[in-house]
Amino acid sequence: MLEIMMETKTLMLNTSFVKKSELGKLLYLLPFLIFLTLINLRNSESYSFIFTSLPVLGRTMPFFILTLLLTLVYKLRGGNLSQLGLCWPHYPEKLKRQVFIRIVLLALSIFALRIFFAVVSDPITDMFPSIPRENLLHNNIDLLIGLLPVLWLVVIAEEVLFRGLLMNYLAKLFGNTAKAWVIAIILSAIVFGLGHMGKGPGAAIGSGLGGLAYGIGYYYSRKNLWPVIVAHCAVNTIGFVGAYFG
């Protein structure tokens, strides 16, 4: 009788765990539903003003909100931001300088790889038409200074979403081997490029190659997001400054 009761209790616990696990997976659908709703609102004539109220970066709001919601669900399911590489590593005081130098050198390497991909791909991306947009940053120093902190927040969100969450998910999905990480790097770069399709196919290809550089950098940084974030911020900041001098 005691054995039957113990087996029944174990079965109930297992059933409860399965239900919680399934519920956790369903929670991930909610951010994507909200994201798709925001994309539809952004592309509508009636509500697009909500997104254009933030000059230049307003169109990124759905992705930023998606990142926040997915990170929240990830945390609710017991995930740790350090597993994504977002938390600053803890080292003894005497090693902090070495760690800082290492992060800077990795960021410079990722930055150089990103620029190399951009230079190599320019002849290809220039063949595709781009979607013309008004350059609001041209000779507008107040807007440039005001938007740079927002730009850096957007970059952090992109890295958490595409490298931290997506790449880790894909690598785990394909077996978490070296080959799995190669697949994760390539697929996440494709998704990253498609996310920039609103600027035109040329920009999507260029951004996809940028995502490839950041993905490689993330992997060789031992899944530390900070060197990638620093490199990505540097690239986008140069782009903004270039638009100012435009």
In short:
By secondary structure, the chain is mainly α. It folds into two domains: 82 residues; 162 residues, no CATH class. The protein is 77% helix and 0% strand.
Structure description:
It is built from 10 helices and no strands. About 7% of the residues have low confidence. By secondary structure, it is mainly alpha-helical. Helix content is 77%, strand content 0%. It folds into 2 domains: 82 residues; 162 residues, no CATH class.
Structural class: mainly alpha
Biggest sheet character: none
Task: Count structural domains.
Answer: 2
Which stretches of 5+ consecutive residues score pLDDT under 50? 4-19
Compute the number of helices: 10
N-to-C SSE string, H for helix and E for strand: HHHHHHHHHH
Q: What percent of residues are in strands?
A: under 5%
**Whole-number radius of gyration?**
21 Å
Q: How does the overall form come out from the CA principal axes?
A: globular
Give the overall average pLDDT. Answer: 87
Amino- and carboxy-terminal Cα gap? 81 Å
Percent of residues in helical segments? over 70%
DSSP E strands, number: 0
